[in-house]
Amino acid sequence: MLKVAVQMDHVATINPRGDSTFAMMLEAQARGHALLHYTPDTLALRGDTVSALAAPITVLDKPKGEHFTLGEATRIDLSTQDVVLMRQDPPFDMNYITLTHLLDRIHPQTLVVNPPAAVRNAPEKILVTDFPELMPPTLVTRDREMIHAFRQEHGNIIVKPLYGNGGAGVFFIQEGDHNLASLLELFESNYREPFMIQRYLPDVRKGDKRIIIIDGEPVAGLNRVPADGEARSNMHAGGRPEISELTARDLEICAAIAPALKERDMIFVGIDVIGDYLTEINVTSPTGIREIKRFGGPDIAVMIWNAIEKRRG
Which one of the listed residues 210, 215, 223, 250 is annotated catalytic? Predict the structure, then answer.
């Protein structure tokens, strides 16, 4: 039996039907592991002790509102745990970065999944730029002149914040659209970081494929088809999920990035592929595993825990 603490947004706020963290907790519980639940705002460092206000949790595969029971919360030293699942949702901001620094102090004696330093140094829209040959034409900048020149070169473009999630703040700017200047003003007032600009890929109408990678190996694909009138395919934005076979190109992309993921000891990763192009490498809080199982794919939570238990041997 492992002692497992789960750092996540409060369990009462999640949708158990589609939440990957919930699936991981169900599998851990089925294996007899002892589960604790805590929210990131209770994390603390005093001296050399990293602690959190954590409560024993029992998860139930039932509708929202009936899906958990919590015991009494007490402050625990996280180094007493065998595993910490770092599963709170982005945004990947200074708070997120600070939490990775705190969890660094207990890892790897307590196994943090995914490793906090690796997550900190490899946010989804940055790590992917290590593989420009796999990506669509991409620009990361706040420089308006460069952005306008990029648009002139490529026509239809996507503009998105560098550290967003769930499709929030993703804009499709068509070649004849006159709103780019106004959009850049909005981005400049809301984000201190550079923005990501990419050539629009028409293949997104066929779907944006999430490929789950466990220990460097691709295990399943979930295609997310945008709703009518929507450029984004994220399930948070109404994308329709469907199981998808992995193509030869998908496997080629996975093989190309596998050494980088293994080097960073990333257990659970979700990459996004549109047509022949890699667009993101998600390492903070990947999703999709409940949908994959529901549509007849493998039980990825089982694979994740097999990988964790191999390390905790």
Answer: 210
